[in-house]
Amino acid sequence: MEIKLIPLQTHGDDRGCLVSLEQSKNIPFEVKRVYYMFDTKQGVSRGYHAHIKLKQVAIAVKGSCRFILDNGSERVDIILNNPAQGLLIDSTMWREMHDFSDDCVLMVLADSFYDETDYIRDYNQFKSLVNNGKLSD
Ligand code: TYD
């Protein structure tokens, strides 16, 4: 299973670092929404869903967390701990986030507004949709 990590150019100088995110340039879609998670309590995991259409890029702008991406037949673990790296999450991926560091700020850019009807929150339903070719990019 291919994991798409996007290297984000860091503009660093003796003052520190700056990363710029631009829609349809280093972010491969039109950005409609940005949200971020922080102050995640110890031992808490989030996610546990896939989407019908939504594409997203996740960036640990501070701290770290562990992603699980699952395409219905394979599961991959990825540690996000680099503010200069984006993880592209296609809609058809089941995703879970675990092991948030206390200082983790996980920012997500999305190509659509929040829409609860785009969520698939049942893993067995996800597996059956993906295995029957009912979900596609
Ligand atoms: P939730 O889907 O539970 O987050 P996660 O998948 O990370 O566990 O979202 C938490 C709450 O925030 C829920 O009430 C829906 C709301 N929410 C929005 O209003 N807008 C958004 O863009 C997102 C992602 C969530």
Task: Set out the fold topology.
Layout: E1 4-7, E2 10-13, E3 16-19, E4 33-37, E5 46-51, E6 56-62, E7 65-70, E8 75-80, E9 85-89, E10 94-98, E11 105-110, E12 119-120, H1 123-131
Antiparallel strand pairs: 1-9, 2-3, 4-11, 5-10, 5-12, 6-9, 6-11, 7-8, 7-10
Describe the protein in words:
With 137 residues, this protein is mainly beta. The chain has one domain: Jelly Rolls (Sandwich), CATH 2.60.120. Helix content is 7%, strand content 44%. The protein has one helix spanning 123-131; strands spanning 4-7, 10-13, 16-19, 33-37, 46-51, 56-62, 65-70, 75-80, 85-89, 94-98, 105-110, 119-120. The chain has a five-stranded antiparallel beta sheet with strand order 1-9-6-11-4, with no helix packed on it. A five-stranded antiparallel beta sheet has the order 8-7-10-5-12. The two termini are 15 Å apart. 22% of the residues are buried. Bound molecules: thymidine-5'-diphosphate. Thymidine-5'-diphosphate binds at residues 33, 35, 46-47, 49, 114.
